Amino acid sequence: MRHESCFCGSDKTYSACCEPIIQGISPARTPEELMRARFTAHCRRNYAFLVDSTHPEHRGDVSEEEISRWASHVTWTSLEIHSASPGDTNDTGTVSFTAHFTMQDTPQELREDSSFAMYEGQWYYVDGHVHGQDPYIREQPRIGRNELCPCGSGKKFKKCCGR
Question: What one-character-per-residue DSSP string does the chain give?
């Protein structure tokens, strides 16, 4: 019998942690448990669980094939839970986490705030807000090639500082 560590980083064995949730033996008791099980399902490429653990009202855009296509280039390496809390009521919750992975041997991370909801006595993933780099916003208007150079030389930008 193997005592494989769980991918979710809980320091428990897989069989004592996420396996019963993924196999439907016992439901997740909290949004954090479901988040950990979903991460582990990604690691084990169990895409059916990812679809099944998505809230029924939000499954329209989710399919095993789509997840598999995207995840075929990803190797999940670790999970950090930053915070987990119930929502405004006992039937909603949030989990903020960072999932570390490699894609084509390049280390990357996914930072997300996920929402969960209780539906018919079970926790489900609803959606998530992914944090990314803020886009670069130009503070000054772009200078056209044929406009005068802002350095004050009197030359066109393309013949001066725009070289």
Answer: ---PBPTTSSSSBGGGTTHHHHTTSS--SSHHHHHHHHHHHHHTT-HHHHHHTB-GGGGGG--HHHHHHHHTTEEEEEEEEEEEEE-SSTTEEEEEEEEEEEETTEEEEEEEEEEEEEETTEEEEEEEEEE-PPPP--SSPPPPTTSBPTTSSSSBGGGTTT-
Running along the chain, 163 residues long, what does each successive block of 10 average in pLDDT? Answer: 82 95 95 96 96 93 88 93 82 95 91 95 94 69 83 87 80
What tokens appear for 70 in the block? Answer: 């995207």
> What amino acid occupies position 25?
I
Rounded to 10 degrees, the C-alpha dihedral 55/56/62/67 comes to 50
